[in-house]
Write a structure and sequence with these properties.
heterotrimer; A mainly alpha (about 325); B mainly alpha (about 300); C alpha+beta (about 450); A: mainly alpha; MetI-like fold; 2 domains; two-stranded antiparallel sheet; 18 helices; C: alpha+beta; D-Maltodextrin-Binding Protein, domain 2; 3-stranded antiparallel sheet; 17 helices; 15 strands; globular; transmembrane helix (chain B)
C-alpha cells in the first residue's frame, strides 16, 4: 500500500493535486534534510503571529477571570454588588460548597450526562456518516440538507419545539405512543421525573450535535481513497472488515478530536437545561454544573460561592482531561 | 492518483465486480441498498421534523395551536404570526445588530486564530506548550459565573450596548476552539509542499498563498461556521452586555417574545414565526459556504 | 489585504479599550443645584417589566414627561420578567448606566430595598398618595419605616369555571372553601380536572394557607422565621393537598400553566380538560369560543357566552372571600440615578389621577385605591376588586428573591402534591427556608 506514508500523517489527507505533482509527495517520510528554513527564520515570527490572539484573549477574559478568582475568596453577595466592601474570607467559599451535598450530586450527574451524550453523539454521528457513504446520491443529499437545517435551527427555538413535542397534554410524542397502543402514555409527563427529563435533554443535545459530527466524519470518510477499499475488496475483505480495518483507523484522528470536543461541550451544557427546566422540572434534581453556578450566582446572589464552584469545575475538567493533555504535551515536546 | 478525488465511492465499479462474480449476491445487494436508503430517509425525517414543526406552527393561528390532537398539515395557514412579529421594526434593528456582531466576530476570530494556529503548528518556540495548554483550558472554564465581571468591564470602558463590546467577549470565547481546530489543518499541510513550490521559484508568501492557503480553506470555513453559530445563538452574555432594548440581538428579541407574554401564556405561533426568521439567515449562510465546504470535501482535506 | 485591514481593526478596537479605561472618572454631580421640579434637562430611563404596560400608557408617560419637563426626555425599556433580577443586579449599582426608574415584581422588592439599591422616597410619599396606596405593596417596599418602592399596579386571582358543566352536575357556586373542595372533587373524571392545578403552583396554593389564617413566615424585628410548621399553615397545606389529589389531573411538576387552555373546548371539538381554573383576570381573553376579530384573526371571544363560562371568587373557610396571592409590581428610583429630581417627577406623573385611571382602564389595578373604580363595574372588575381587597403578599424578607430563584416553594409544593407527609415536610423546609429568608445564601 503505497498510500501509507501520506495517510499516516495525522490530521492530513494527502490526495490533493499539488501533493501528487510535487516532488514532496513522499517527503513526509524522514529524509536526511532537517526542516532548515524554519530554523533560520527570526524567532520573533511566531510571537508576532500570536500577538492578535493573545491580545483578544486578554481583552475579553483577563478581567472577568481575574475577578472570578478574587471573588472566590471573598464574601461577595448582593450587598457587595451594591457597594459594600467585600470581605476576605479565605477558603470559606470552597469549604461551604464542598460540604454541600448538592454540589457532589450535581458533579456526578454532570459527568454521567456528559459521557453518555458525548458517546451517543459520536456513535450516532458515525453511523450517519457511514450511512451517507453507503446510500445513493439523492438520499445522501436529502440527509445532508436535513442535517444542515437542524444545525441551523436557533437553539432557543430547538429546545422550545422539543418541549412542545414532549408536552404531556398536547405533545406529538405522547399522541403517537397512544396511537400505536401505549395507552398508559396518555398525559405522561416526561419532564417531571429526573430520568425522563434527562432522556428528553439527551435527545435534544444529540439532535443538535449530531449534524456537526456526522458531516465532519463524512468528510473524513470521503478522503479515504477508493483504491484502498477496492484493493481490500479484491483481496476478499468483507464490508465489516473494511469498516474495522480501513475506514475506522483512517478517521480515528477526526473521531478522537470530535469526541474530545463533545466531552468538553457536553460538560458545559447550560442553556438547554435551563430552558427545559422552565417547563417545570424539579430544579434541584436536574441542575447540571452550569445551571448550578448560574443559580448560585444570579438567583441566589451568592457570587463568591458561584466563583468558587467555577474554579472547582475548571480544576475538575483539567483533571479529567489530563491523560489527553499529557499525550498532547509529549507529542509537542 | 487523480482518480481518488470523487467524494463518493464509485458504486458502478462495485456493482460490476459483484455481478461478475456472484449473481445472487447482486440481488441481496439491491435489497440492502433499498434498506439503507430507507434508513437514510428515516434519519433525514427525524432530523428535519422539529424544523418542520417550527415552520408549520409559525403559519398556524394561535387558537389552533396546542390542540390535543396534533395537526400535521397546514390546514388553517395564516401569515398573521409573521406580520405581528415584524410590526414595530424591532426585528430589523435586532437583525442589524446580530449581523454586525456575528460578522465582526467571525472575521476577528478567523484572522486571529489563523495566525495563532500558524504560529503553534509551524514553529517550535519557548512558551508554545504553555500557550497550547492555556488555550485548551480556557475552554473548560464555566462561563455562567462571569456575567457580573463582564458587565463591570464593559461598563468601565463605555462599551455597554456596543457592537465592539460584545464582539470582544465573543471573540475571546470562540478563539480558543478555533485556534485548536485550525492547528490540525495547518499541521496537516506539509511544509514541504511550500518548500517545493519555493524551489520552483515562488516567494515564501506566494507559496503560502497559492499552495497552503487553498488547502486550509475548508478548515477556515468550518471554523467560520462554528464562530458564526456561536455568535448568532448566544444570549446570556448579550443579556448583560446589551442592556438597552435598542441594541438587542435576535436571540434576545426572541426571548422577549417568549417572556413578554409569559404571564399571559406564550404566543407560540409568534415565537415559532420569530424562530423561523432567525433561522433563515443561518440557512442562507450555510448555502453560501456549502459550495466551499463540498469543494473542501472533494479535495479531501477536511479533518476536524 | 482584507485580512490585514481586519487585523488592524481588531488592534484599533483593543487600543480603544485601553484608552477608554483611563478616562473612567465618575461624572460630576450635576444635579446638586436642581430644586424640586426644576431639575436640569436630561434624558432619563424607565425600565418596565414585561408587556403589561401597553403602548398607549407608555406614550402617555413619554409625552407628559416631555411636556412637564421641558428639554428632558423619557426613554422606556422593556425587560423580560425572567431576566429582570439579572439585569437589575448588574445595572443598578452602575451609576453610569443605571436606569433611573424601575418596575420590579412586588415579591422581588425586599431583596433590593434591603441592600440599598433604591432611593428613599419617604419625603414625597404623602404627595404620591400616602395612605391611599395599596398598603401590602407599600410594606414590601419599606425598610425601617422608610419607603423605597411603591405600588405600581396589582392583579388578583379568581376562579373561572364552566357553568354548563357545573350546572349539569347539579352544582352551585360554592359558599365556603370546603364546599368548593367537595364540588371540584365531584367534577373530576379521567379526562377532566374538577379544578386544574399544577403541583408546583404554590402561588395559587398559598391561598389555602392564607384562608386558614396561616403564614409562610413571620418577622421579629429584622429576623425572619419560616412558619410552615404552624398548625394553621399545616392545616392549609393539608387542605390544598386534598384538593390537588382529588380534583386535579395535572402532573405534580406543573407550574405557571396556561390554565385557560383547559377551560376551552378543543379546536377539534373535544371536551374541555377542566371544569374550573384559578387565574389572573386577563386570562379571560384566552377563554371562550373562537371568533374572528377586526384584524381578521381567529381569537377567543373573552367568555361572551355567560351560560357556558363564568367566574367567582375563591370562598373563605367560613364563607366570604379567601385571601389570595396578589400579583403585581412596585416602582422605585435607583439610588444611583444621576437625575433623581427628574425621576421623582416621573413618579408624580405615574401617581397622578389621570395615569392611575388609565391603568384601571387597561385592566391593571391602580396602586392608589382611590382610583380602583376606573377598572369598571362589570363582574370581572368587581370580582377583581373584591379579591384584591382580601389579597395577601409573600413575606417581605431580604432573601425572598433568592428563594424564588432557587424554586424552593415549587419543590415543597410538588412533594406535598405527590402525597408527602405535610408535617414532616414543613419541618424540613422550615429549616431550609429560615436562613434563606434572612439572606443567608451569601454568608
Amino acid at each position: 500500500m503505497s498510500h501509507d506514508a501520506a495517510l499516516g500523517v495525522p490530521a492530513h489527507s494527502g490526495p490533493a493535486g499539488p501533493a501528487a505533482t510535487g516532488p514532496a509527495a513522499t517527503g513526509t517520510a524522514p529524509t536526511g534534510e532537517p526542516p532548515a528554513p524554519r530554523r533560520r527564520r527570526p524567532p520573533s515570527a511566531p510571537y508576532l503571529l500570536l500577538v492578535p490572539a493573545v491580545v483578544a484573549l486578554l481583552a475579553g477574559l483577563a478581567y472577568p477571570v481575574g475577578k472570578q478568582v478574587v471573588m472566590s475568596v471573598q464574601k461577595y453577595g448582593l450587598e457587595q454588588q451594591f457597594g459594600q466592601p467585600p470581605e476576605f474570607v479565605g477558603l470559606d467559599n470552597f469549604v461551604r460548597i464542598f460540604t454541600d451535598d448538592a454540589l457532589w450530586a450535581v458533579v456526578a450527574r454532570s459527568v454521567v450526562f456528559c459521557m453518555v451524550n458525548a458517546l451517543l453523539t459520536v456513535v450516532v454521528g458515525l453511523a450517519l456518516a457511514l450511512l451517507m457513504r453507503a446510500v445513493t446520491t439523492p438520499v445522501r443529499l436529502t440527509l445532508q440538507v436535513c442535517l444542515l437545517l437542524a444545525w441551523a435551527m436557533p437553539m432557543v427555538a430547538g429546545v422550545t419545539v422539543f418541549k412542545w413535542l414532549f408536552d404531556y397534554r398536547t405533545g406529538v410524542v405522547n399522541w403517537l405512543l397512544v396511537k400505536v397502543g401505549f395507552d398508559g402514555m396518555a398525559g405522561y409527563s416526561w419532564l417531571s421525573q429526573p430520568m425522563t427529563f434527562f432522556f428528553v435533554a439527551t435527545m435534544i443535545i444529540v439532535w443538535m450535535s449530531v449534524p456537526f459530527v456526522a458531516l465532519s466524519l463524512y468528510a473524513g470518510l470521503t478522503s479515504v481513497p477508493e483504491e484502498v477499499l477496492e484493493a481490500a475488496r479484491i483481496d476478499g475483505a468483507s464490508g465489516r472488515q473494511q469498516l474495522w480495518h480501513i475506514l475506522l483507523p483512517m478517521v480515528r484522528p477526526v473521531l478522537s478530536i470530535v469526541l474530545l470536543l463533545q466531552i468538553i461541550w457536553d460538560l458545559r451544557v447550560f442553556a438547554q437545561i435551563r430552558l427545559l427546566q422552565d417547563a417545570g422540572a424539579p430544579v434541584s434534581e436536574t441542575n447540571l454544573l452550569g445551571n448550578f453556578i448560574y443559580e448560585l450566582g444570579m438567583s441566589r446572589q451568592d457570587f463568591g460561592g458561584a466563583a468558587a464552584v467555577s474554579i472547582f469545575v475548571l480544576a475538575l475538567t483539567v483533571l479529567l482531561s489530563w491523560p489527553y493533555v499529557r499525550s498532547l504535551m509529549k507529542e509537542d515536546a | 492518483m487523480s482518480a481518488i478525488a470523487p467524494a463518493r465511492p464509485s458504486q458502478g465499479k462495485a456493482r460490476d465486480l459483484a455481478t461478475r462474480k456472484h449473481a445472487p449476491r447482486a440481488n441481496r445487494r439491491r435489497v440492502r441498498a433499498v434498506a439503507l436508503g430507507a434508513l437514510g430517509i428515516l434519519a433525514a425525517l427525524i432530523w428535519v421534523f422539529p424544523v418542520y414543526w417550527m415552520v408549520l406552527s409559525a403559519f398556524t393561528p394561535a387558537a389552533y395551536l396546542r390542540a390535543t390532537t396534533p395537526q400535521f398539515l397546514p390546514l388553517h395557514a395564516t401569515t398573521t404570526n409573521f406580520s405581528r412579529v415584524l410590526e414595530g421594526g424591532d426585528f430589523a434593528t435586532a437583525l442589524k445588530m446580530s449581523t454586525a456582531i456575528t460578522l465582526l466576530t467571525v472575521l476577528a476570530v478567523l484572522v486571529f486564530a489563523f495566525l495563532g494556529a500558524l504560529a503553534i503548528s509551524r514553529w517550535k518556540f519557548r512558551g508554545r506548550t504553555s500557550f497550547v495548554l492555556a488555550v485548551l483550558f480556557i475552554q473548560m472554564l464555566p462561563a455562567e459565573g462571569l456575567f457580573i465581571a463582564q458587565y463591570k468591564m464593559l461598563s468601565s470602558v463605555h462599551l455597554l450596548d456596543s457592537v465592539i463590546g460584545v464582539t470582544v467577549l465573543y471573540t475571546a470565547a470562540v478563539i480558543p476552539f478555533t485556534i485548536w481546530m485550525l492547528r490540525g489543518f495547518v499541521a496537516g499541510v506539509p511544509a514541504e509542499l511550500e518548500e517545493a513550490a519555493m524551489v520552483d521559484g515562488l516567494s515564501r508568501t506566494q507559496a503560502f498563498l497559492r499552495i497552503t492557503f487553498p488547502l486550509l480553506a475548508p478548515g477556515l470555513v468550518a471554523s467560520g461556521v462554528y464562530a458564526f453559530l456561536q455568535a448568532w445563538n448566544e444570549f446570556t452574555v448579550a443579556l448583560v452586555a446589551l442592556p438597552s432594548q435598542s441594541s438587542q440581538t435576535l436571540p434576545l428579541w426572541l426571548r422577549n417574545f417568549l417572556s413578554a407574554s409569559a404571564n399571559r401564556g406564550v404566543d407560540w405561533g409568534q415565537v415559532m414565526a420569530a424562530s423561523t426568521l432567525i433561522a433563515i439567515p443561518v440557512i442562507i449562510f450555510f448555502l453560501f459556504v456549502q459550495g466551499r465546504m463540498t469543494s473542501g470535501l472533494v479535495s479531501g482535506a477536511v479533518k476536524g | 489585504m482584507k485580512m490585514l485591514r481586519f487585523a488592524a481593526l481588531g488592534v484599533a478596537a483593543t487600543l480603544a479599550l485601553t484608552a477608554c479605561s483611563s478616562s473612567d472618572t465618575p461624572s460630576d454631580d450635576a444635579t446638586t443645584a436642581g430644586g424640586e421640579k426644576t431639575a436640569e434637562a436630561a434624558e432619563i430611563t424607565l425600565w418596565l417589566a414585561g408587556g403589561d404596560t401597553n403602548d398607549e400608557l407608555r406614550q402617555y408617560l413619554k409625552d407628559t414627561f416631555a411636556a412637564e419637563n421641558p428639554g428632558s426626555t423619557l426613554t422606556i425599556e422593556e425587560v423580560a420578567w425572567p431576566d429582570l433580577v439579572t439585569k437589575l443586579t448588574t445595572a443598578l449599582p452602575d451609576e453610569a448606566n443605571t436606569p433611573d426608574v424601575v418596575e420590579i415584581g412586588n415579591t422581588q422588592s425586599p431583596t433590593f430595598t434591603t441592600v440599598g439599591a433604591f432611593r428613599d422616597l419617604t419625603p414625597i410619599y404623602d404627595e404620591l398618595g400616602g395612605d391611599k396606596l395599596l398598603q401590602s405593596f407599600v410594606d414590601v417596599g419599606s425598610v425601617d419605616g422608610k419607603n423605597y418602592a411603591l405600588p405600581y399596579y396589582f392583579g388578583s386571582r379568581y376562579m373561572f369555571y364552566r357553568k354548563d358543566i357545573w350546572t349539569a352536575a347539579g352544582l352551585e357556586v360554592p359558599k365556603t372553601l370546603s364546599e368548593f373542595s367537595e364540588s371540584v372533587a365531584k367534577l373530576k373524571t379521567d379526562t377532566q380536572s374538577g379544578f386544574a392545578m399544577g403541583g408546583q403552583d404554590w402561588r395559587n396554593g398559598i391561598s389555602w394557607v392564607f384562608a386558614n389564617g396561616g403564614e409562610l413566615a413571620t418577622v421579629d424585628g429584622t429576623t425572619w422565621t419560616s412558619t410552615l410548621s404552624d398548625p394553621k399553615t399545616i392545616e392549609g397545606l393539608t387542605q390544598w393537598q386534598e384538593v390537588y389529589r382529588t380534583a386535579s389531573n395535572l402532573p405534580s411538576t406543573e407550574r405557571d400553566v396556561a390554565y385557560w387552555d383547559f377551560l376551552n373546548d378543543g379546536t377539534d371539538g373535544s371536551a374541555p380538560a377542566a371544569a374550573t381554573i384559578m387565574a389572573p383576570g386577563w386570562a379571560r381573553w384566552s377563554i371562550g369560543d373562537i371568533t374572528t376579530n377586526d384584524a381578521g384573526d381567529e381569537v377567543r371571544d373573552g367568555m361572551a357566552d355567560d351560560t357556558t363560562f363564568d367566574i367567582f371568587a375563591l370562598p373563605g373557610v367560613d364563607g366570604g372571600i379567601a385571601p389570595v396571592f396578589a400579583g403585581g409590581s412596585n416602582i422605585a428610583v435607583s439610588a444611583k440615578s444621576q437625575h433623581p429630581e427628574l425621576a421623582e417627577n416621573l413618579l408624580r406623573i405615574i401617581f397622578s389621577e389621570e395615569y392611575q385611571t388609565k391603568l384601571g382602564g387597561a385592566g391593571l389595578g391602580p396602586g392608589n385605591s382611590d382610583f380602583v373604580s376606573s377598572l369598571g363595574d362589570d363582574k370581572f372588575a368587581t370580582t377583581m376588586i373584591e379579591t384584591a381587597a382580601a389579597s395577601k403578599l409573600t413575606p417581605a424578607a431580604p432573601g425572598w428573591a433568592a428563594i424564588e430563584g432557587a424554586f424552593v416553594y415549587e419543590e415543597l409544593f410538588q412533594k406535598i402534591a405527590d402525597g408527602g407527609d405535610v408535617a414532616a415536610l414543613a419541618t424540613e423546609y422550615d429549616a431550609k427556608l429560615t436562613p434563606m429568608l434572612n439572606g443567608g445564601a451569601a454568608g
